[in-house]
Specification:
By secondary structure, this protein is an alpha+beta fold. It is built from 7 helices and 11 strands.
Length: 233
């Protein structure tokens, strides 16, 4: 495994601390979301393939090391492992089904006892939730040597986390109508009350906030947005 200094030299400010405390990278994944037959709250998120991403990089899907992720395959909201209230569900795909046809796949059983899990499930079913983000440690890669090649091609990565991206960067501007369409008034009120347990009333200052602080500020804004949609019955 690469040392922290090696990763820092290669990736610089892109290095972040993953849920295990290890240094690594995070990358967004756009997915095709499919309902699973049956009455259980289960949805399939079939990730994009080895296409080049916005960092001009690609990940070889046969190079995922999955054991550490599968030891605790919970799916949190936006990489936030700070509370059990942030767990939206769990990935129930076995190891031999995680990579299929050159794609990283996720089958999420949503936790409906968590209001955030219930919201994520309803938004996924309604077509509003279509993205995941993964946290991984790059183990082996090759650098591109011409303008037509990706800057990096990862050939081996250790997967540590999968998240659903539920709260947009500006939730007040984008999410109000979506929530109104999938939750009734009582559900919106319950969710707003639930979210405020995890949020500080003081919004972090831009540029100086920690990742967790920014996420809590987004949740607080979402709670306020939910209160604002109560009149839309």
């Amino acid at each position: 495994m690469k040392t922290y200094d090696q990763l820092l030299k290669e990736f610089g400010a892109r290095i972040c601390t993953l849920n295990t405390g290890a240094p690594g990278l995070r990358a967004g994944i756009h997915c095709t979301v499919k309902d699973v037959a049956g009455d259980d709250p289960v949805m399939d998120f079939i990730a994009s393939d080895e296409t080049v991403d916005r960092y001009n990089e690609c990940i070889k899907q046969n190079g995922w090391e999955l054991d550490n992720f599968l030891a605790n395959p919970v799916v949190p909201d936006c990489h936030d492992y700070s509370s059990v209230g942030k767990i939206l569900g769990k990935d129930i795909l076995p190891k031999d089904k995680q990579v299929q046809d050159g794609k990283l796949c996720t089958r999420i059983m949503f936790c409906l006892d968590n209001p955030m899990g219930a919201l994520a499930y309803k938004m996924a079913k309604a077509g509003f939730l279509k993205s995941q983000s993964v946290g991984f440690i790059p183990l082996e890669w090759t650098n591109g040597n011409d303008k037509d090649s990706p800057d990096r091609t990862y050939t081996k990565c250790e997967l540590l986390e999968k998240s659903l991206v539920v709260v947009p960067a500006n939730p007040g501007a984008t999410i109000g109508n979506q929530i109104r369409s999938v939750l009734n008034v009582s559900e919106r009120r319950d969710l707003a009350d639930f979210l405020k347990q995890f949020c500080s009333e003081q919004t972090p200052a831009p540029g100086g906030a920690s990742e967790r602080g920014v996420h809590d500020a987004q949740l607080l804004n979402l709670a306020r947005t939910l209160r604002g949609t109560m009149s839309g019955k």
